[in-house]
UniProtKB/TrEMBL annotation:
Residues covered by the Bacterial sugar transferase domain: 226-410
Biological source species: Winogradskyella pelagia
Protein name: Undecaprenyl-phosphate glucose phosphotransferase
Family to which this protein belongs: Belongs to the bacterial sugar transferase family.
NCBIfam families on file: EPS_sugtrans, WcaJ_sugtrans
Membrane topology classification: Multi-pass membrane protein
Residue spans crossing the bilayer: 6-25, 37-60, 72-91, 231-253
């Protein structure tokens, strides 16, 4: 082991990460049962043991016998298992004893399956579900609109629907409501077909639950990978580009017009929370900057501003937003607060974009939907690409978008004004 410890550490660390992603080792949710966690640990341990043996098969001159290898793997697995179960039970006790980390739920439909789910919520506070109400669709005074009002009024996080109790039009209505109001909707399945989508199938105790929309960035491993990449990439840009470029841009901006070097604007981010988005100032100071986008031949844009907008240099300060955690390098572009409120009312599923952090660039931007929104067709197209990105995220997709963004900036884009 003394011969090449760095190679061993790198090999084992990388192998563990790749194996964890493959085996879903860190996909443990509040409703995951201990026996399922144990199964994940056993599966991970077996493959990890094979991987460690493979290393010493390559470096056979180290003359390591099987016993110390097994002891090393066993100790590693015991320590990781202890940490995993400790966190799992600490969270459960925190929910049950202190009422924290809760998700407010409602159920649409009243039958044996929904009653069983309601009992599960009420009898297992350690899972962190606070059940508010079960709506009986068979009652004469039932009104789906009133259900939606209740969900908004009580701050409900997750809606559970019995598929057998809803018509196709009602299902569509519930899905649209959930998408447009940042609510999670899940289904209690039966024999009825609902959508030709890739649904996730989970168990709450022994009750099957369908999740309509799978968001890869809800998985803890993917979240860590994306956040680590964001910190690394934004750090490189800040140190190697912004450190010397900022003084140059600042002098040019100040020479042409009076006003601050940076422009700060409130925008909506993850879970619809507002944050201050930073850019290099590209316009003369004006009262309408927070209300109206720049248009072609906009008189507010300065000469320096026209150049930095054309080359997307004006967006570079947003890497500080990335470093602070308000944004990501890649994601749906954030809109001005006034525009977000307007589009949320007019454009179906617009709010789905806020299930993830906004980005400096995104799939919609490299697909021809950057810059000014000239018609509803532009924003509808942007939402379509943003939802595809949210449901199909991967680090490889992020790298592809970053590369294409750079190429577009070099070539110049017609709508970059």
């Amino acid at each position: 082991m003394d011969k090449d410890p760095i190679a061993f550490i790198l090999y084992i660390s990388l192998s563990w990460v790749l194996l964890s992603v493959y085996s879903n080792f860190y996909q443990v949710y509040r409703y995951t049962r201990p026996v399922n966690i144990l199964a994940l640990i056993i599966k991970q341990s077996v493959f990890f043991l094979i991987i460690v043996f493979a290393f010493f098969g390559i470096y056979y001159e180290l003359k390591i016998y099987p016993k110390p290898v097994i002891q090393y793997v066993l100790l590693s697995v015991i320590l990781i298992s202890a940490a995993k179960f400790t966190v799992y039970y600490l969270l459960q006790n925190y929910r049950a004893s202190f009422g924290g980390n809760y998700r407010n739920t409602v159920i649409f439909g009243y039958n044996k399956k929904t009653v069983a789910l309601e009992q599960f919520f009420n009898k297992n506070p350690e899972y962190g579900y606070l059940h508010k109400k079960t709506f009986n669709f068979k009652q004469d005074d039932f009104n789906l609109t009133r259900c939606f009002e209740y969900v908004l009024e009580k701050g409900i996080d997750e809606i559970y629907c019995s598929i057998s109790e809803l018509s196709n039009s009602q299902i569509a209505e519930v899905v649209d409501f959930a998408d447009n109001n940042l609510k999670i909707v899940k289904f209690i399945p039966d024999s009825k077909e609902i959508y030709s989508k890739k649904l996730r199938y989970d168990y709450y105790d022994y009750i099957p639950i369908l999740t309509l929309r799978t968001i890869p960035l809800e998985d803890s491993v993917n979240t860590i990978v994306k956040r680590s990449f964001d910190i690394f990439f934004s750090g490189l840009v800040i140190v190697f580009i912004l450190s010397w470029l900022t003084p140059i841009i600042a002098i040019l901006i100040k020479l042409e017009s009076k006003g601050p070097v940076f422009f700060k604007q409130s925008r909506n981010g993850f879970n619809y929370k507002e944050f201050d988005c930073y850019k290099f100032r590209s316009m003369t100071p004006n009262k309408n900057a927070h209300l109206y986008q720049a248009t072609r031949d906009d008189q507010r844009v300065t000469k320096v501003g026209r150049f930095i907008r054309k080359t997307s240099i004006d967006e570079l300060p947003q890497f500080f937003n990335v470093l602070f955690g308000d944004m990501s390098v890649v994601g749906p572009r954030p809109h001005m607060v006034s525009h977000t409120n307007m589009y949320a009312k007019r454009i179906d599923k617009f709010m789905v974009r806020h299930f993830v952090k906004p980005g400096i660039t995104g799939l919609a931007q490299i697909s021809g939907y950057r810059g000014e929104v000239e018609s509803d067709k532009d924003i509808i197209g942007r939402v379509k690409y943003d939802i595809f990105y949210i449901e199909n995220w991967s680090l490889l997709l992020d790298l592809k978008i970053i590369f294409q963004t750079f190429m577009n900036a070099v070539k110049g884009e017609d709508k970059a004004y």
